Amino acid sequence: MKNILSIILILNLNFINSQELIIGQKTVEPGIVFIFEGAIKDHVMPSKMHLSEKETNIHIEARVNWDNNNTPAGTPAGGFVAYLHITAKVINQETGLSTFIDLLPHINLIDNYHYARNISLPGKASDLYSVEFNVLPPTSIELSLHKDWSENYGNQLMSDYSFFYENVNFEEIANATRN
Prior knowledge:
single chain, alpha+beta, Immunoglobulin-like, eight-stranded antiparallel beta sheet, 3 helices, elongated
């Protein structure tokens, strides 16, 4: 009986994990991997800072981790890259209406640390969308740099980046629910 329950649990976790739409993926210097996703909306706390599930369509995410190789010495392979400022702008390709949101750090039992927010799409779930993610490095107030980092990688963690994706279809994710 325990084995059957374990299999059911694993299948359910795999289903939840597979219910994420990969919008795009990019690796930038110095070995930081960005994976942008649309996921099933979720209950996120504290509720005063986040829209409820019933007020939204999707959970827009940026998983940002150190690569497994070609990273600075001392970097934990696959570790979360903290203190970034990430925004997402979701644009309805038919109407031009848009939603703009700051992505905040979250933690869950699927992706662990990631940046995300629940959002309402600016149109129907069946519409096509463009999505722009803008990423700014931490300021010097948020992250101090040692001499060895500055000598090898400069005065900041990374450069500013902008990533743009078109023809994103959120319909399946927007219509899915978590159990």
